[in-house]
Structure formats: C-alpha cells, structure tokens
Recover the amino acids of this structure.
C-alpha cells in the first residue's frame, strides 16, 4: 500500500519549490494529495500539482460534486503525514488559534497524523513577536517545524526566512512515515548491483544492473527499523545514509565471500544483485593487444544456493528471478533449488521492468505456492511489497 501524504501549499513565493517536493515524494512511492489555499493559486497553478501528484487538488470545501464522504475529514483520516510547505505567517497564525476557514486549515486541524510545517517569509515577518508567539503555540501542539534558513530572499532582503530545500523536507517526511518499525531488531543482508569480471588490465564482463532495486529494499528495511548490511557491486543508485554497513565488492567471487561470511548471522537475506554468471577462465594482467581474442568462460559461484545451505533455519532467503520466458515455471524451480522462502520474479522483456529502470513489474511466489502479481510500480514501492510479504 502506498503511504498517503498530504501536502498543504500556502500563498508564499516558495510555493514553486513545493513542486519539487511533490515530485520527490511521488518518486519515493508516496500517494501525494495536495491542498492549496486560494492565495497559493496566485503563485503556482493547481494543474501543476495535479500533474505532478497524479491526484486532484482540492481547494474549495463547499463543492458538492464529489464523493459522499466529507472530504476534509476523509483526507485528514487517511493521510499518514501532513506537510505544509511553504507555510505563510497567515497560515501559522490561523492554526495557532484553531481558525479553520478553508480546506487546508480545516483538514489540518481534523488530522491526527504527524505534521511538518515549513515556514517561509520575509525576515521581519519571521522575527515579528506575534508570529514567533504563534509559532511557539504550533510547536506546543506537537508539529515539527523545519525552520527557514538564511539567504537572499525573493523581496531582496538578506536574512532568515527562506524555506528549507525540498529534499530536506522529503527526508523529514520519510522519517515520519518510517515510524512503523516493524523490522526493528532484525538483521538483514541485501545484495545489489552488477558484479564485474576482469578480462585483462582494462576490460571486463558485466551487465546493466543499476542496483536500484536492491538499494530500495535496503533503504526500506532500514527505514522500517532493521540493521541492514548492503553488499553492493557496481551501482549507479544513490546510497541511503541509514544502513549499518555497506560492503563494496567487484567480482562475483568477492560478492560470494562477503555474503557467505555474513549470511549465517542474518534473519533475512535478499539477493537482489545481478552477479555475472560467467567469468573468464584466464585473466590477463596486462591489456591484450593481439589481433583476435577468444574468451573461454566458466560458471561463477551460485551465491543464492550457498546462502540457502548455510542460513540459519529460521532465517528467510529472498531471491530474484529475472526471466525472458516461462516466468512462473522457472521462478518456482529456482525457489526450490536454492532453498529460498520467497522468489521475486520479473519478466525483463516487459516495459518498465528489470534493469536500470525506476519501476518494476513483479510476481511474488512463496514456499506454500502462493502467487501474487503486481502492476508496474516504483521500485521503492516494490520494496515495501516484498517487506510486507516477509512480515510474520
Ligand atoms: C508576491 C508575494 C509574495 C508573498 N510571499 C509570502 C511569503 O513568502 N510568506 C508569507 O507568509 N506571506 C507571503 N505573502 C503574503 C501572503 O500571500 C498573504 O499573507 C496571504 O494572505 C496568505 O494566504 P494563505 O496563508 O491563505 O495562503 C506574499 C504576498 C505576495 C503578494
């Protein structure tokens, strides 16, 4: 299930930055709903937010052409975080005193979800004693304030008042969503990326894996409380900063050694890497310059099968099965052969699935033979689906 995040946008010049925020939250796999004040629409159009969030933007509380449920209450109940960015002095003043005269302030007050407020305004407004007293009142109600930073403001003044950057806000939203620590105390090892098999001093064999799937899984385990070790080959994905250990490896043999050393101590091992299946029989130290070169390849070690043999009996092994034909049959065969508990099968010929994409199309198969297929989803969301399937 996607996490539902409510983003409130009020009438400040920093409203344009909230477009980046909404976009970042959507990329994180959130279901983002934007509420704008009437004044916010003077700065950015509702259509921009609708397009970025893939959801309608609600502003008018009294429109009657929507579903029966009272909308501000339904959004307030279902969202898991409320973030208001930018928050005007006017907005802060209103919520400090319980004034609910539009859709945003009413929904804000009706929601019991964690709240993040990002004030942005002219320095004099920010330092004003009445505003500061309103802000204190809002802090005492339990909201998290991401204080504005110093810089040159849109009005030309230099001082405090600039809204914090969208990536900082997205990180805070992530933290608030991660309050479900359902893997707390679990030790998890995840592999990610491609391995690299040297041919000679400059050339190698590898594949197109970006590591995005494995990194997303590692990140969600860490967000959800696990102690995560990531064993990563060649990756282009950005590493999260909440992992316990990141072990970088090059060849399949290096990955085999790193994983088999650690696997017996783990509660969960997820093999999301794409190790090279073959390695040259002979490796040349220097750059080969001959007219022709014939490569003889041999099979590399089967890391997943080794983990299946050495893991503790109570530990869970998750493997990936990237297929181009006979998806279910091949994936089920792998599950048994490698003594795995869950196989994540994907048909890499499908658009939006497999290597080097931000999305994946997967089918999960467990030992009991349960098969569940999912539509195309962002990899971070696929990660949550896998974690949910591992919850006992
Ligand atoms: C060009 C312009 C920029 C503004 N920027 C800000 C701002 O950054 N912060 C702020 O608190 N108010 C700002 N205001 C004033 C708010 O738009 C005004 O207080 C409005 O009533 C806020 O309404 P809302 O909180 O319902 O969106 C600005 C006004 C204008 C015309």
């Amino acid at each position: 299930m996607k996490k539902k995040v409510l983003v409130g946008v009020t009438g400040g010049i920093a409203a344009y930055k909230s477009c980046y925020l909404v976009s970042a939250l959507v990329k994180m796999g959130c279901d983002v709903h934007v509420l704008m004040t009437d004044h916010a629409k003077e700065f950015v159009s509702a259509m921009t937010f609708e397009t970025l969030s893939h959801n309608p933007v609600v502003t008018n509380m009294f429109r009657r052409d929507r579903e029966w449920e009272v909308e501000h209450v339904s959004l307030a109940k279902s969202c898991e975080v409320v973030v208001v960015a930018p928050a005007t002095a006017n907005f802060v003043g209103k919520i400090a005193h319980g004034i609910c005269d539009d859709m945003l302030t009413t929904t804000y007050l009706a929601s019991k979800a964690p709240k993040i407020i990002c004030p942005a305004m002219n320095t004099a407004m920010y330092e004003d004693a009445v505003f500061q007293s309103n802000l204190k009142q809002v802090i005492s109600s339990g909201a998290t304030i991401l204080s504005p930073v110093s810089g040159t403001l849109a009005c030309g003044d230099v001082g405090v008042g600039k809204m914090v950057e969208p990536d900082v806000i997205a990180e805070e939203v992530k933290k608030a969503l991660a309050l479900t620590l359902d893997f707390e105390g679990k030790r998890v090892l995840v592999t990610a990326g491609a391995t690299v098999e040297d041919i000679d001093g400059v050339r190698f064999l590898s594949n197109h894996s970006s590591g995005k799937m494995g990194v997303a899984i590692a990140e969600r385990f860490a967000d959800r409380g696990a102690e995560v070790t990531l064993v990563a080959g060649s990756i282009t994905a950005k590493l999260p900063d909440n992992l316990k250990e990141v072990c970088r490896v090059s060849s399949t043999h290096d990955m085999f050694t790193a994983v088999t050393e650690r696997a017996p101590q783990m509660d969960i091992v997820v093999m999301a890497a794409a190790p090279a299946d073959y390695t040259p029989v002979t490796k040349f130290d220097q750059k080969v310059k001959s007219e022709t070169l014939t490569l003889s390849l041999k099979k590399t070690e089967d890391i997943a099968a080794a983990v299946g043999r050495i893991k503790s009996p109570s530990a869970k092994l998750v493997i990936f099965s990237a297929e181009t034909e006979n998806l279910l049959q091949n994936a089920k065969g792998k599950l048994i052969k490698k003594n795995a508990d869950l196989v994540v099968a994907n048909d890499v010929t499908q658009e939006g699935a497999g290597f080097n994409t931000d999305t994946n199309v997967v089918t999960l198969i467990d030992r009991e033979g349960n098969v569940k297929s999912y539509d195309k989803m962002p990899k971070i969301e696929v990660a949550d689906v896998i974690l949910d399937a591992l919850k006992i």
